Amino acid sequence: MLHKKIGMITIGQSPRTDIVPEMKEILGQEVDVVEAGALDGLSLEEVKRFYPKKGDYILCTRMSDGTEVVVAKRHVLLRVQRCIDLLTEKGAEVILFLCTGKFPEFPSRKLFLEPQKMIDQLIPAFIRGKEKMGLLVPLQDQVEQAKKNYVRLKGEVIVKAASPYAGRDEVSRAAKELKKSDPAVIVMHCMGYTKEMKRRVREIIGKPTVLARSFVARTLRELLG
Q: Please, what CATH class does the domain formed by 118-211 belong to?
Protein backbone atom coordinates (compact mmCIF):
# COMPACT_ATOMS: atom_id res chain seq x y z
CA MET A 1 0.00 0.00 0.00
CA LEU A 2 1.36 3.42 -0.95
CA HIS A 3 1.37 6.14 1.71
CA LYS A 4 -2.05 7.79 1.74
CA LYS A 5 -3.72 10.72 3.49
CA ILE A 6 -7.29 9.89 4.49
CA GLY A 7 -9.86 12.41 5.67
CA MET A 8 -12.42 11.31 8.26
CA ILE A 9 -15.52 13.33 9.14
CA THR A 10 -17.67 12.88 12.22
CA ILE A 11 -21.10 14.44 12.68
CA GLY A 12 -19.92 15.15 16.22
CA GLN A 13 -16.62 16.65 17.34
CA SER A 14 -13.14 15.61 16.31
CA PRO A 15 -10.84 13.97 17.07
CA ARG A 16 -12.78 10.70 17.40
CA THR A 17 -10.37 8.96 19.73
CA ASP A 18 -12.99 6.24 20.23
CA ILE A 19 -13.14 5.29 16.52
CA VAL A 20 -10.05 6.28 14.52
CA PRO A 21 -7.39 4.30 16.45
CA GLU A 22 -9.30 1.03 15.95
CA MET A 23 -9.72 1.77 12.26
CA LYS A 24 -6.02 2.61 11.89
CA GLU A 25 -5.16 -0.83 13.25
CA ILE A 26 -6.81 -2.22 10.12
CA LEU A 27 -5.68 0.49 7.69
CA GLY A 28 -2.02 0.16 8.70
CA GLN A 29 0.88 2.52 9.30
CA GLU A 30 0.94 3.68 5.67
CA VAL A 31 -2.18 5.78 6.24
CA ASP A 32 -2.24 9.29 7.71
CA VAL A 33 -5.64 10.39 9.03
CA VAL A 34 -6.81 13.99 9.17
CA GLU A 35 -10.09 14.62 10.97
CA ALA A 36 -12.88 17.19 11.03
CA GLY A 37 -16.20 17.33 12.87
CA ALA A 38 -19.51 18.94 12.05
CA LEU A 39 -19.81 20.18 15.64
CA ASP A 40 -16.21 21.35 16.03
CA GLY A 41 -15.89 24.68 17.81
CA LEU A 42 -19.35 24.51 19.42
CA SER A 43 -20.19 24.31 23.11
CA LEU A 44 -22.65 21.77 24.47
CA GLU A 45 -25.20 24.54 24.98
CA GLU A 46 -24.86 25.58 21.33
CA VAL A 47 -25.25 21.98 20.16
CA LYS A 48 -28.48 21.64 22.16
CA ARG A 49 -30.08 24.02 19.65
CA PHE A 50 -29.72 21.23 17.07
CA TYR A 51 -31.88 18.81 19.04
CA PRO A 52 -34.43 17.00 16.81
CA LYS A 53 -38.06 18.00 16.60
CA LYS A 54 -41.01 15.87 15.53
CA GLY A 55 -40.42 14.47 12.05
CA ASP A 56 -36.66 15.11 12.04
CA TYR A 57 -34.17 12.44 10.99
CA ILE A 58 -32.31 11.64 14.21
CA LEU A 59 -28.55 11.28 14.59
CA CYS A 60 -26.57 10.25 17.66
CA THR A 61 -22.96 11.31 18.17
CA ARG A 62 -20.60 12.68 20.80
CA MET A 63 -18.67 15.74 21.84
CA SER A 64 -14.87 15.68 22.10
CA ASP A 65 -15.12 14.91 25.83
CA GLY A 66 -17.29 11.85 25.16
CA THR A 67 -20.66 13.41 26.03
CA GLU A 68 -23.46 11.86 23.96
CA VAL A 69 -25.52 14.33 21.92
CA VAL A 70 -28.54 13.90 19.67
CA VAL A 71 -29.01 16.19 16.67
CA ALA A 72 -31.33 16.58 13.70
CA LYS A 73 -29.76 15.81 10.34
CA ARG A 74 -30.89 19.09 8.82
CA HIS A 75 -28.70 21.02 11.25
CA VAL A 76 -25.43 19.33 10.25
CA LEU A 77 -25.66 19.14 6.45
CA LEU A 78 -23.86 22.42 5.69
CA ARG A 79 -21.35 21.71 8.42
CA VAL A 80 -20.50 18.33 6.90
CA GLN A 81 -19.98 19.98 3.52
CA ARG A 82 -17.56 22.44 5.12
CA CYS A 83 -15.65 19.51 6.58
CA ILE A 84 -15.38 17.91 3.13
CA ASP A 85 -14.01 21.14 1.68
CA LEU A 86 -11.59 21.58 4.59
CA LEU A 87 -10.15 18.07 4.35
CA THR A 88 -9.82 18.39 0.59
CA GLU A 89 -7.78 21.57 1.13
CA LYS A 90 -5.62 19.67 3.62
CA GLY A 91 -4.72 17.12 0.95
CA ALA A 92 -6.97 14.18 1.79
CA GLU A 93 -7.00 11.73 -1.12
CA VAL A 94 -10.08 9.84 0.10
CA ILE A 95 -12.70 11.12 2.56
CA LEU A 96 -14.63 8.79 4.85
CA PHE A 97 -17.84 9.84 6.58
CA LEU A 98 -17.92 8.34 10.09
CA CYS A 99 -21.69 8.00 10.19
CA THR A 100 -24.20 5.34 9.16
CA GLY A 101 -27.12 7.74 8.68
CA LYS A 102 -28.84 8.44 5.36
CA PHE A 103 -27.77 11.71 3.76
CA PRO A 104 -28.23 13.57 0.46
CA GLU A 105 -25.34 13.60 -1.99
CA PHE A 106 -22.45 15.76 -0.83
CA PRO A 107 -20.36 17.42 -3.58
CA SER A 108 -16.75 16.28 -3.27
CA ARG A 109 -13.73 16.49 -5.57
CA LYS A 110 -12.31 13.42 -3.81
CA LEU A 111 -13.69 9.92 -3.40
CA PHE A 112 -16.30 10.25 -0.63
CA LEU A 113 -17.30 7.07 1.19
CA GLU A 114 -20.56 6.75 3.13
CA PRO A 115 -20.84 3.76 5.51
CA GLN A 116 -24.64 3.74 5.30
CA LYS A 117 -24.52 3.01 1.57
CA MET A 118 -21.78 0.41 2.03
CA ILE A 119 -23.68 -1.46 4.74
CA ASP A 120 -26.99 -1.16 2.88
CA GLN A 121 -25.44 -3.11 0.01
CA LEU A 122 -24.20 -5.77 2.41
CA ILE A 123 -27.37 -6.40 4.42
CA PRO A 124 -29.52 -7.96 1.61
CA ALA A 125 -26.91 -10.71 1.25
CA PHE A 126 -27.69 -11.84 4.81
CA ILE A 127 -31.48 -12.15 4.52
CA ARG A 128 -32.36 -13.40 1.08
CA GLY A 129 -35.38 -15.40 2.22
CA LYS A 130 -36.89 -16.02 5.64
CA GLU A 131 -33.73 -15.36 7.63
CA LYS A 132 -33.81 -13.06 10.63
CA MET A 133 -31.24 -10.31 11.05
CA GLY A 134 -30.56 -8.45 14.28
CA LEU A 135 -29.80 -4.75 13.94
CA LEU A 136 -28.35 -2.56 16.69
CA VAL A 137 -28.84 1.20 16.53
CA PRO A 138 -27.94 3.82 19.17
CA LEU A 139 -31.32 5.28 20.16
CA GLN A 140 -34.83 3.98 20.78
CA ASP A 141 -36.07 6.89 18.66
CA GLN A 142 -34.08 5.43 15.73
CA VAL A 143 -35.72 1.99 15.84
CA GLU A 144 -38.70 2.87 13.63
CA GLN A 145 -36.40 4.93 11.41
CA ALA A 146 -34.27 1.81 10.84
CA LYS A 147 -37.26 -0.50 10.29
CA LYS A 148 -38.58 1.78 7.54
CA ASN A 149 -35.19 1.73 5.84
CA TYR A 150 -35.23 -2.07 5.51
CA VAL A 151 -38.95 -2.74 5.17
CA ARG A 152 -38.57 -4.05 1.59
CA LEU A 153 -36.14 -6.83 2.49
CA LYS A 154 -37.46 -10.38 2.23
CA GLY A 155 -36.33 -11.51 5.66
CA GLU A 156 -37.19 -10.17 9.09
CA VAL A 157 -35.17 -7.37 10.65
CA ILE A 158 -35.29 -7.14 14.45
CA VAL A 159 -34.05 -3.73 15.62
CA LYS A 160 -32.89 -2.98 19.15
CA ALA A 161 -31.40 0.20 20.59
CA ALA A 162 -28.17 0.48 22.58
CA SER A 163 -26.10 3.63 22.70
CA PRO A 164 -22.38 3.01 22.15
CA TYR A 165 -21.73 5.98 24.42
CA ALA A 166 -23.61 4.56 27.41
CA GLY A 167 -21.21 1.68 28.00
CA ARG A 168 -21.02 -2.09 27.93
CA ASP A 169 -24.12 -2.81 30.04
CA GLU A 170 -26.54 -1.23 27.57
CA VAL A 171 -25.07 -3.15 24.64
CA SER A 172 -25.24 -6.37 26.65
CA ARG A 173 -28.91 -5.72 27.50
CA ALA A 174 -29.79 -5.19 23.84
CA ALA A 175 -27.86 -8.31 22.83
CA LYS A 176 -29.83 -10.39 25.32
CA GLU A 177 -33.08 -9.04 23.86
CA LEU A 178 -31.93 -9.85 20.33
CA LYS A 179 -30.97 -13.39 21.34
CA LYS A 180 -34.64 -14.17 22.11
CA SER A 181 -35.46 -13.71 18.40
CA ASP A 182 -32.64 -16.07 17.34
CA PRO A 183 -31.27 -13.96 14.44
CA ALA A 184 -28.95 -15.59 11.90
CA VAL A 185 -26.63 -12.58 11.86
CA ILE A 186 -26.26 -9.28 13.71
CA VAL A 187 -25.23 -5.92 12.27
CA MET A 188 -23.98 -3.27 14.69
CA HIS A 189 -25.18 -0.32 12.66
CA CYS A 190 -23.26 2.61 14.12
CA MET A 191 -19.65 3.68 13.76
CA GLY A 192 -19.57 4.29 17.51
CA TYR A 193 -19.76 0.59 18.42
CA THR A 194 -16.33 -0.80 19.36
CA LYS A 195 -14.65 -4.15 18.74
CA GLU A 196 -15.03 -4.89 22.47
CA MET A 197 -18.78 -4.33 22.12
CA LYS A 198 -18.81 -6.69 19.14
CA ARG A 199 -16.97 -9.32 21.17
CA ARG A 200 -19.61 -8.99 23.88
CA VAL A 201 -22.50 -9.32 21.40
CA ARG A 202 -20.93 -12.44 19.87
CA GLU A 203 -20.40 -13.88 23.33
CA ILE A 204 -24.06 -13.37 24.30
CA ILE A 205 -25.81 -14.30 21.03
CA GLY A 206 -23.31 -16.74 19.54
CA LYS A 207 -24.01 -15.72 15.95
CA PRO A 208 -21.97 -13.98 13.20
CA THR A 209 -21.72 -10.26 13.93
CA VAL A 210 -20.73 -7.39 11.64
CA LEU A 211 -19.20 -4.28 13.18
CA ALA A 212 -19.70 -1.18 11.03
CA ARG A 213 -16.31 0.43 11.70
CA SER A 214 -14.21 -2.65 10.97
CA PHE A 215 -16.23 -3.55 7.86
CA VAL A 216 -15.77 -0.02 6.51
CA ALA A 217 -12.06 0.06 7.44
CA ARG A 218 -11.37 -3.23 5.66
CA THR A 219 -13.22 -2.04 2.58
CA LEU A 220 -11.20 1.20 2.62
CA ARG A 221 -7.96 -0.78 2.97
CA GLU A 222 -8.94 -2.82 -0.09
CA LEU A 223 -9.54 0.37 -2.04
CA LEU A 224 -6.17 1.80 -1.05
CA GLY A 225 -4.14 -1.38 -1.48
A: alpha beta
How far from 195 is each of 23, 43, 75, 124, 129, CA to CA, in Å? Answer: 10, 29, 30, 23, 29
Write the CA distances from 23 to 20, 121, 191, 197, integer angstroms. 5, 21, 10, 15
Instruction: Say which residues have a Cβ less than 8 Å from residue 17's Cβ, sequence separation at least 6.
Output: none
Same fold, 4-115+214-224 and 118-211: yes
Q: pLDDT tens digits for 77-118?
A: 999 999 999 999 999 999 999 999 899 999 999 999 999 999
* Share of residues in the chain with pLDDT > 70 (%): 99
CA 90 to chain centre: 24
Give the residue among 96, 135, 139 at the shortest CA–CA distance from 118: 96
> What's the confidence (pLDDT) of residue 2?
59
80/203 Cα distance (integer angstroms): 36
